[in-house]
Design goal:
mainly alpha, AhpD-like, globular
Amino acid sequence: MSRLDELLRELPEAAKDVRLNAQAVMQQGALSAAQRHGAAVACALTLRDADLAAAVLADAAAAGVGDGVIDDARAAAAIMGMNNVYYRFRHMIGKEAYARKPARLRMQRLAQPKTSKVDLELFSLAVSAVTGCETCVRAHEQAVVEGGLTDEHVHDAVRLAAVLHAAAIARI
């Protein structure tokens, strides 16, 4: 049994659907094992649930996911932690004055993945879905599709993000 499965077994009965959905999204779909585990790590870190993060990190290691994927997932969580706040603010305010200002936020790591640019974008998309940044979701979805992944990849990554978000809520 995976560490995530062990953690999910502790969810209350009210979250049975979340438990079953989490097990499903971590086992099937269009995502490769590296994409699935990388997105899960990025989302768990974003959700700030130490036990959830430890479980998905342990499962990624058990699945043979390389250090580069984990590093890209950590980078996506960290950079989106900054960008999602900034760009969500600009979008919510909607003032042209803010839209014209350069962000002047360093984010070069997005252009320097340890593994794959499209996978780093996919992880960033999943995190942006969790945090609700429309601007970032749109930009990363476009980059993922232009990078050669399909709508199914996008759909599966966002489903995974949604279910892990629900699991973190159910653990409270």
